[in-house]
Design a protein that fits this description.
It contains 3 helices and 13 strands. The protein is α+β, with helices and mostly antiparallel strands and 205 residues long. It is rod-shaped.
C-alpha cells in the first residue's frame, strides 16, 4: 500500500486528494494498490481506511443520466424555439437575422420529414420541400435538391428552378422561379417543365 492525503466530507466521502500533505485539514491514509484517483468520489473513509462503495457508483450513474436527459431536453427546447423564431422572421425581415439562429436549429438526421421542416446541415439551414422518409434512405441529405432547398433560397422571392419529381412538388400557377439567370412566373398548375423547355407554361418577367 501507498500513502496519500485526503480531505473528506462529513459522511466520509472523498472530497480531495493529494500525494503530498499540502491540503488543509488533510488526513494521511493508506490506499489500496487498485485505488483509482479518477474515481475517488466512489470511496469513503471508514474505520481508518478507504472503502470502495458500489452504491455510490450507482448514484453517480443516475446523476449523469439525469443530467444527460436535462441537457437533451434543453437542447430540444432551444431547437423548437429556434425553428419557431425562424418562421416568425420569414416575412419582411432581414434574412441575416434568420441565419443567427442556425446553430440552434435541429441537426439533420436520417428520419422522416414534412414539407416546411427546417434543419441545419453542415452549419447551413435548409427547408424541406417534399415530405419524405430518409430513415431507409440516409443519402437523402439536405443536399438533395429535389427534397430540400437552402433556406436562403427558400425565402427568396425568385428561387432557383428545381426539376419537380412529379405532381406532388410541381409548380403551381403564380409560382416564381429563376432559371438560367432569368425570372419566370408559372402560368399553369402542375408545371413540371423548365421555362426553357416549355415556354408556354411560363411568363418571363
Amino acid at each position: 500500500m501507498m500513502k496519500m492525503y485526503f480531505v473528506f466530507d462529513d459522511d466520509g466521502a472523498v472530497r480531495a486528494s493529494s500525494p503530498a500533505p499540502d491540503l488543509v485539514d488533510c488526513v494521511e491514509v493508506d490506499v489500496p494498490d487498485d485505488f483509482d484517483p479518477l474515481n475517488q468520489d466512489l470511496y469513503v473513509y471508514k474505520n481508518g481506511k478507504l472503502e470502495y462503495r458500489e452504491e455510490r457508483k450507482a448514484i453517480r450513474i443516475r446523476e449523469e443520466q439525469r443530467e444527460k436527459r436535462r441537457s437533451r431536453a434543453m437542447e430540444r427546447l432551444l431547437e423548437k424555439q429556434a425553428v419557431e423564431m425562424v418562421k416568425e422572421l420569414e416575412a419582411g425581415t432581414d434574412i441575416e437575422d434568420i441565419f443567427d439562429f442556425t446553430p440552434l436549429l435541429p441537426i439533420w438526421t436520417p428520419r422522416g420529414y414534412m414539407v416546411g421542416d427546417i434543419v441545419q446541415y453542415e452549419d447551413e439551414p435548409y427547408r424541406c420541400i417534399v415530405t419524405h422518409d430518409a430513415a431507409a434512405n440516409p443519402s437523402w441529405t439536405p443536399l438533395t435538391a429535389t427534397l430540400w432547398v437552402p433556406y436562403r433560397q427558400a425565402v427568396e422571392e425568385w428561387p432557383e428552378w428545381v426539376q419537380p419529381l412529379g405532381g406532388h412538388d410541381a409548380y403551381m400557377k403564380g409560382d416564381k422561379v429563376t432559371h438560367m439567370g432569368e425570372k419566370y412566373t408559372s402560368l399553369i398548375d402542375g408545371n413540371v417543365w423548365a421555362p426553357t423547355a416549355y415556354p408556354a407554361g411560363w411568363k418571363q418577367e
